[in-house]
Amino acid sequence: MTKQSTLQEPILAPPPEIEKIQKLAKVLRGSQPLVFLTTASGEKIPIPASVRQVMCHLLELMAADKAVHVEHFNHELTAREAAYLLRVPQSFVMKLLFSGEIPHHSVSPASATPTKEETSQIGSYPRIWFEDLMAYKRQRDIKRREGLREITQLSQELGLYEDGVKDKK
C-alpha cells in the first residue's frame, strides 16, 4: 500500500508509565470543552477535538497494556486501501465502486491527483475520496446495527433468545 505508512514498530508502554497514561486518558476523556498543551515558554495551545479523540483512543489502549501503532492515509485512496479500511476483499470494493454504492473517480498512471471537483476525469485506476469511503462505512455500520437489532427482537419474540443456555436432553 503505497499511500499508507505506519510507525516502524508498535509501541508498548513500559509498566512504570501505565498509571500516568491512565491519568492522562481520564483527563482527555473528561467533560472539559478544551484541553491545552502548555509549552516550556508558557504558551497554551488548544488541542483540537480530532487530535483529542485520537490521543484518547491511543492512551486507553496503552493503559490497557496494548501495543499501538499509527497509520495514515491520503485523501485519495486506492481500491486496496479502501478494502483494508473496510476490512473486506478488494474485489468487493470494486463491486461497490462500479455499482455506484461508493463514489469514485479514475486516474491514469501519468495523471496528477485530481481535485474533488475533477472527478469526471477518465482513466484506468479507480480512486476513492477518504470522506466518501468513511460516509459509506458509517451508513454500512448503521444498517448492520439495525439488522442486528431486528434479528435480536425477532429472536426474542419467537422465544429463541434467552439469557441462559438450557440443557436439551
Structure description:
It is a single chain. This protein is an alpha+beta fold. It folds into two domains: 4-72, no CATH class; 75-155, no CATH class. It contains five helices and seven strands; from the N terminus they run βαββαββααββα. It has helices at 18-29, 49-63, 79-86, 90-99, 130-157; strands at residues 4-6, 36-38, 44-46, 71-73, 76-78, 105-107, 125-129. It has a three-stranded antiparallel sheet with strand order 5-7-6. Strands 1-4 form a two-stranded antiparallel sheet. A hairpin with a 5-residue loop joins strand 2 (36-38) and strand 3 (44-46). Helix 1 packs antiparallel against helix 2 and helix 3 packs across helix 4 (90-99). The longest helix has 28 residues, at 130-157.
Number of helix segments? Answer: 5
**Broad structural category:** alpha+beta
Mean pLDDT, rounded to whole units?
Answer: 84
Q: Please count the beta strands (DSSP E, at least 2 residues each).
A: 7
The portion of residues forming beta strands comes to 5-15%
Distance from N terminus to C terminus (CA atoms, Å) equals: 53 Å
Rg to the nearest angstrom? 22 Å
Shape: extended
Major beta sheet summary? 3 strands, antiparallel
Strand order of the largest sheet: 5-7-6
Strand-and-helix sequence, N→C? EHEEHEEHHEEH
Percentage of residues in helical conformation: 40-55%
Domain module count:
2
SSE inventory with pairings:
Elements: E1 4-6, H1 18-29, E2 36-38, E3 44-46, H2 49-63, E4 71-73, E5 76-78, H3 79-86, H4 90-99, E6 105-107, E7 125-129, H5 130-157
Antiparallel strand pairs: 1-4, 2-3, 5-7, 6-7
